[in-house]
Every structure is written in C-alpha cells, then in structure tokens.
Amino acid sequence: MNANFIKYAVMGFGALLLVLILNPFVVIGAGERGVVMNFGAVQKEILGEGLHLRVPIMQKVVIMNVQVQKGEGQGDAASKDLQQVTTNVAINYHLDPLKVAHVYQTIGNFAAVGDRMILPAVSESVKAATAQYTAEELISKRQEVREKIRNLLLNRLANYGVIVDDFSIVNFAFSKEFSNAIESKTTAEQLKLKAERDLERIRIESEQKMTQARAEAEALRVQKENVTENLIKLRQIEMQQRAIEKWDGKLPQVTGGATPFIDLRNAQ
User: Fold this and answer.
1) Exposed/middle/buried for 80, CB within 10 Å: 0-12, 13-18, 19+?
2) 102 closest CA partner among 44, 37, 58
3) Which one of 2, 42, 57, 65 has the lowest number of neighbouring Cβ atoms within 10 Å?
4) What pLDDT digit, counting tens, does each position of 87-144 carry?
C-alpha cells in the first residue's frame, strides 16, 4: 500500500508539474482581450474576459488592453499665414475589442500602438488642420479647430482598430514676435474701445446739460410771462403787512433823523 501510494503521489506530482510547464490555462482580466495564435498565425477568434483553455505548444494567447488610455504630446506646425505654431494636445482612446487581432497583426502589441499609431496620427492631423487657419483664427476658432482635428483622427485611426473617445487642445504656443504683436493689437483695441466709450459718455453728458439748460430757460420764460404789474403790487402789500405784524408799536429812538412813516391806508 505504501508503494502504491508513493507511485500515485509521484504520478500526480508529475501530472501537476506537466500542467504547470505546459500551462494550458489562460486568464483574461477585466478590460482585456486575448488574441489567439496557432503556431504563430493570428486567428480570428478573440478571447473575452475569464478563464480559457489553450492547446499547449500549438497555441499562444497575447493579451491586449482595451481600456481607455490617455496620451499627451505636442507638435510643431505652420499656420495658413506661415506662423510657427506649437500645439499641446491630449487624446483619450481605446482599442476596438472586435479588432484587437487585426491591431496585433498590423501594428503589434498594445505598447506599440501609442508609438506607431497614435503619435504619428495626432501629428499629421494637427498639421493638416492647422494649415487651414491663420494664427489668429487658431485662437478665435479654437473649438472649430479641435473638432476638425478630432474628425481627422477618427477617420485615420478607425481603419486601424483604434477608437478616439475624446480629443482636446491644451494650448497653442506661437513665436515671441507674433505673441508680442497679438498683445500690442489687443492693447490697441482696448484703448480704442475705451476712447469710444469716453466719447459716448461725453456726448451723453453734453446732451444732458443742454437739455437741463433748455428746461431752466423755459422755466425762466414762463416765470417772466407770469410776472404782471398787479402781482408786483400784491407782493409789495404782502411785505408791508408782514412789517406791520412784526412792529411792536414803539417808534425807534433816532436822534437827528426823521420819524419813519407808514401809510396804513395803502396797506388796506
């Protein structure tokens, strides 16, 4: 019994060792796909996530990442008016899960996709789009330029099984001379706008003063027309009445002068 036990134990250990050496199991993780090759020939079959069996020696499985990846970089290009432009861009992309076999067959493993496909495609698309706009238009029409580059990338990379999820222009950088010229132009436009606002303010204030002057002149004219001889006499009588009301009945003590006389008959 001991001999049989040792025999079966050795056989089991040998079988386990053989399995480990041949490794017939393949685990495809989340966000991955498996490309199957029979003696080096890429097959159409693509392995999804989970545990799979392969034929040892004959079959090999290459794991390809299909998760969204981010790439950043910059490229130099010339604008429509021949200004040198350095464009900093960012791109999010992933491999089409249904085309990973084609990607591996034409480009290589996942690490090669960024260097062999993404960077050249971004560079060419940026140059093609930038050449259609002047340097100033690249700034004023930034969203339009972004969409044009994105569409160029979509069409170019889709043929290779790469899907563009998002693309953005981080920054445009121009030559120092052009940047100074843009700054000077912006300053001049701001000064012009300020001068126009000042002129408009002065015009409005002038019109307000003229309107106020006309109103005051019209008020004086109306007052002058309303002043009659009877109104003047009435005001004189009112003044005399107020003077009488304030008099305490005592004559002022004045030496060497005449006594003031008030004609009460005219005050009635």
Assistant:
1) middle
2) 44
3) 2
4) 888 999 999 999 999 999 888 887 788 888 888 888 888 899 999 998 888 888 989 9
Q: Do residues 78 and 60 make contact, with C-beta atoms less than 8 angstroms apart? A: no
- The alpha-helical segments, DSSP class H, found in the chain are 2-22, 100-106, 110-113, 119-130, 135-140, 142-158, 176-226, 229-246
What is the residue type of 7?
A: K
Q: Cα–Cα distance between 161 and 95 in angstroms, integer? A: 6
3-state secondary structure of 75: strand
Beta pairing partners, 71:
91
CATH of 69-174, one of 2.40.128.20, 1.50.10.140, 3.60.110.10, 3.30.479.30: 3.30.479.30
**Domain residue limits, the chain:** 2-65, 69-174
DSSP-assigned states of every residue in 29-60: -TTEEEEEEETTEEEEEEE-SEEEE--TTTEE
Q: How far apart are CA 250 and CA 263, in angstroms?
A: 16
Asked if residue 152 lies in contact with residue 128, where contact means CB atoms within 8 angstroms, the answer is yes
pTM (predicted TM-score): 0.57
What would the two tokens of residue 161 be?
A: 């099984």
